[in-house]
Amino acid sequence: MLLEHPSTATPVTHALLALMCFHAARMPARLDPSGRLTCLEDQDRARWDPALLARGWVQLERSASGPELSAYHVEAAIAALHARASRAEDLPWGEIVGLYDRLMAIRPSPVVALSRAIAVAQLEGPERGREELDAIADRDRLVSYPFFHAALGELDLRRGKPDMARRHFQAALAVARNPTEREFLERRVEACPTDP
Questions:
Q1: What does the domain layout of the chain look like in residue ranges?
Q2: What is the pTM of this model?
């Protein structure tokens, strides 16, 4: 609707639509065939909607027609890198971290810092990612966000600290917002090996 009016058909609006298309394209793969939440790295990319991806690319190109670089431009660029990679292991994590650095300069927030920390962990390993999570300003604003605790759990699991990971997944489970999140987080709790 915004793009139908000359006053709001701006590069920023095109960037927003590109972002929405890239995210919506991934919706069919967010749940596995049995309806369980699937993390991004495990999604079947063949199930991503090709028409929405194509529209996202067109809108991203149109968003480059002006001098402004908005948060939507940067977020759409991050989503585009995810869309371009045919496999999760092909993602250019260095570029993604660089884009999160730009996003933090434009519109800093604890959630952006969380996403950046996850990207740093993918690039430099779980220890560095954990350092970035621990350094997030205003971390208290993330206490009720289940995927903050889940990120701590994932990194601690990768660091070989299953007991700590389990506690973080349990904290995430305590603030889960719906049955799908709860089921996913219960599986992550169960994935933490127990000491003999």
A1: 10-85, 92-140, 143-196
A2: 0.91
